[in-house]
Amino acid sequence: MALTLRDSVEKLAGVGKKRAELYAKLSITTIGELLLHFPREYLDLSHPIPIEETQPGEVYVVRATVMRKQGEQRIRKGLSIFRVFVSDDSGAMTVTIFNSAYQFAMLEEGETYLFYGKMDGTFLKKEMRSPQIFSDAQSSQMYPVYPLTQGITNKQVQSHMREALHVWGDCLSDKLPEGVRREYGLCQFRYALETIHFPPDSHALAVARERLIFEELLTLSLSMHLLRQKNRVQTSVSVSDVSLALFLESLPFSLTNGQMTAIRESLADMQGDVPMNRLCQGDVGCGKTMVAAALAYVCAKNGLQTAVMAPTQILAEQHARTFEKILAPLGISCGLLTGSMGAAARRDQKERLASGEIQVIAGTHALLQEEVSFHALGLVVTDEQHRFGVSQRAALCAKGNHPHLLVMSATPIPRTLALLIYGDLDISQIAELPGGRKPIKTTVIPSKQRRRALSFVREQIRAGRQAYIVCPLIDENETLALSSVKQYVESLAESPLADVKIGLLHGKLKPKEKDALMQSFASGETNVLVSTTVVEVGVDVPNATVMMIENAERFGLSQLHQLRGRVGRGAFESYCILVSDNQSEETKARLDVMKRESNGFVIAREDLRLRGPGDFFGSRQHGLPKLRIANLVNDTSLLHKAQDCAKQILAKDPPLSSDEHRGLRKSVQRMFLQSGQTTLN
């Protein structure tokens, strides 16, 4: 039987059923999937450091000769230690090997090896524990390090990779047309794959990476362009031009240039013959809701309904209040639909919605229920889009005849990346904030300074202000050693906040309890709101001036920025206090970004660079397929080239049906399936 890349990894020497099950944990079941399992990093063995120059706590490659071997020492049952004494021209160190008689036996006295690992011990008595050991002949190589699962070693993956390339190498086909490879100076696919796994040097590795990254980004760009076209169907809800003068005059403030531009761009789309699909993104507090209100006003004047879906009850209720306050005086009826409402109230809202009596409805996922129907749905608005999946967005739109769609996000991301993540959407960015907003002063403190910080909170309360304190968990978790909200509130009884009124808000409370707490805080009756991250969105209390965040290292930068955005919404100087005892360099770097940056786009870019788009968006609900090798933040120059190439290809061959594009079409089809789309057509 002919070999194919769909062959099971069990066909590899040494891979039986059990090891194949381990590979499956890495999403590897076939030879093709194994070959696309790229190293996460490379050990450069070509620049060993003299022992004398090494520092305890740092990782090094050391080239040293075995001087003496010490026999096995049994410390306790199941633990044996082997010590090897090595040296170079500059000094000596001890290599300690745990439970590996085989590795110990392989080392020969008088022979020179490369030892890679963390230097322990002291400056006078240096030691490496369980280092990776290579022969001196490997000093010119770059050693690949793969993502692993327990039971599979790096050495085994290397061996299986070598066999797969040797035996199945002829099955590899190049999906990039020769003309594309020539135009962009890219190597052939087989060379790139062999080199990415076994690079002879850093230059060859760079050539291989560029080729593989380009192909992946080209496939992604083609996918998103085609998705965009797929969603450009005709709509029956084109709106006629309506003057916004009455709407704008009724507002107690003037809209910013950014808000007006977003409204104009959206209305231009809505007057066309295909549905608007637009992302309105901007920083915390930039006024995206006013854009949605303006569009809802226009829809209502055209006899169309608007549905606003929010991820939490608190935010849905706030939207309902906002739309009621703005639109009801203009004769537009507004409503609310959430899962926690009483049966009678829900039934009443559904009936009024179906009859067309309610023109603007705000709600949670309850809007997606099968029995919810609309009289004439013209506009769907989803807020905090990264909390919703592509399918949920589509399910709400399916309740109308291809209605217009406005996606709002207060998690601003670079435009190039937004075009990929929201590939089927046009983009409006609101860059400026409404007038009068002051920068929020941000500081990072260790927990030993908590009492001093609480004293500062107390001063703010005496001045008539309010404060938030955010903790990551509700119940104590000893493993993670994080602050518990409940225990935290109890501890405040013996703090500078002992005599102030404190509210406790978390996701396990009943909706009525949450609402009562928020109303108490909004009215100023409660001085301090201790909360989980449910205050990240949907809480607008202009009198609050302090946001104190415990265990700040546990939050992503964009989430910290969202939380910080809950203060600074009034005329008073506001402050953000980040509490963290984590001393890692990564944590320091991340929290330093929060101290020096107030621009959400810059912060989001750093968050993406540090965490990648998957983690950045939580549980990958954004529909963007997982990339194997490309980095959407670091590889932007290649991304631009790939996007240009995609446009050129689709201009010549929109369905990718020609022979030279057959391979790309298959790659695009696979990516469509990955991102939750069923078909390319």
Looking across the biggest beta sheet, what order are the strands in? 11-12-10-13-14-9-15
- Strand-residue proportion: 15-25%
Distance between the termini: 33 Å
CATH topology (level 3) name of the domain at 245-430: Rossmann fold
Structural class by sheet pairing and helices: alpha/beta
The CATH class of the domain at 245-430 is Alpha Beta
pLDDT below 50 for ≥5 consecutive residues: which ranges? Answer: 475-482, 614-622
Give the overall pLDDT as a whole number: 86
Name of the CATH homologous superfamily of the domain at 245-430:
P-loop containing nucleotide triphosphate hydrolases
The count of strands amounts to 21
Give a quick account of the main beta sheet: strands, pairing sense, barrel closure: 7 strands, parallel
CATH architecture of the domain at 245-430: 3-Layer(aba) Sandwich
* Shape type: globular
Q: What would you report as the Rg, rounded to the nearest angstrom?
A: 30 Å
- Helical amount among residues, as a percent range? 25-40%
How many alpha or pi helices? 22
How would you summarize what this structure contains?
Mean pLDDT is 86; it is low at 475-482 and 614-622.
